[in-house]
Amino acid sequence: MAGFGDFTGYNRPFGLDPNRETNDLYDTRYKQIYGYHTPITEEYQGPPLILDDAPDEDNSSYVTAAISVASLITENLLSHPFIVLRRQCQVHNSLKSFHIVPYTLLPVVVRLHRRQGITTLWKGIGSTCVVKGLNLAIEDVVAKGTGWPKEVGKCSTVLQYLQHITLKCISLAIITPFYSASLVETVQSDIASDKPALFDVFREGFMRILEWGTPSKGRMLPIWAIVLPTAALGISKYLAHTIIRSVTARVLRFQQRHKHELNDAYNVNYKKNTQNPLIEDVNLKANIFSFITMEIIFYPIETIIHRLHIQGTRTIIDNLDTGTSVTPILTGYEGFMDCYNTTIAREGVAGLYKGFGSLVLQLAAHLAIIKLTTLVVAEVSNLLKPAKSPSNSEDSVHSQQIYIFN
């Protein structure tokens, strides 16, 4: 694509003072990007600069919207089988095959499907969606009751930002008992336990709340001992996701500006309240990159938290060493640090990354679906686009010139 940097001079009046304000739209455009007026030269540099290909805002909008929907569905639904495998590996303290690489999981998955059916990796999806919905509902209620900002974009002061973080912490603390119940439903074996009903997660969650002190079940930790590390993990992931996304978006926007593809005046046909498709695309890429980075960084801490949740629940999970048997979870951790030290001592550092191969498969599938969605939507948009006539071509060149000069 042609750019301003490809030319050293422009077809403009000779002798114009570069420090003087001018109504020259071309000169104004140059100054907005580089911070100074176009250089003056006595050589004729050819006709005004025209982009090789004007941006197609309709196509970009469709592709970006389709990718957003595909990413949302993949993250909340299609990734669930990988999450089940990942959590079963994390809580299985005596697992011999750590499944840190993806290919070791494939034969185990085949055996699980042969023995228990194709739905074996979709267990707990109902309770998982219920907990996510409950989290959003609690945030909304707290935000309306306190007036605290629900979204970080609405925080204009340090106080509002602290209120926003506090709102997130309160929401995470309230849903911790229900998250614990949902985790049990996700990892327990279908052939060794009854399938729970959709709203059993509420019953089990309230039971954990009532047992706030010393639980009645053996080695189960009291819920207050799990709330703090769970909320700390959740808020740490949220802050990391926000920071990484913001930094990545700034880097991508900086690159786009140098390519002359991102500007507030992207097209003269845009309305003031219309979102720039290129900005949407940058934000989407930054969000995906942040999600991947966050999942990798906090994986070891998530392993410890999940083990604390499962302890004492008498959960029987699938044995992912063989894929044909089941095994009970029998642990006696006293808290977060005891779980960490015991895991390092008995399983090594690699014990914190059990099931990491499942995360790799999850992220690979996520990116593959996004790529496939991009190709499909782009092809469909091109097929539905009307053929250009000669008159349309002239209008296109004229619109490209308008795009540059504005």
Give the overall pLDDT as a whole number.
78
The level of helicity is: 55-70%
* Percent strand: under 5%
Output the structural class: mainly alpha
Rg over CA atoms, rounded to whole Å, is 28 Å
3D structure, described in words:
The structure is a single chain. By secondary structure, the protein is mainly α. Helix content is 60%, strand content 1%. It is built from 13 helices and two strands, in the order H-H-H-H-H-H-H-H-H-H-E-E-H-H-H. Strands 1-2 form a two-stranded antiparallel ribbon. The two termini are 18 Å apart. The N terminus and C terminus are likely disordered.
Helices and strands in order, then pairings?
Layout (H helix, E strand, L loop, with lengths): L24 H10 L22 H22 L1 H12 L14 H11 L8 H22 L11 H30 L12 H11 L12 H36 L18 H21 L1 H12 L5 E3 L7 E3 L7 H12 L8 H29 L5 H16 L1
Antiparallel strand pairs: 1-2
Question: Briefly, what is this?
Answer:
With 406 residues, the chain is an all-alpha fold. It has helices spanning 25-34, 57-78, 80-91, 106-116, 125-146, 158-187, 200-210, 223-258, 277-297, 299-310, 336-347, 356-384, 390-405; strands at 316-318, 326-328.
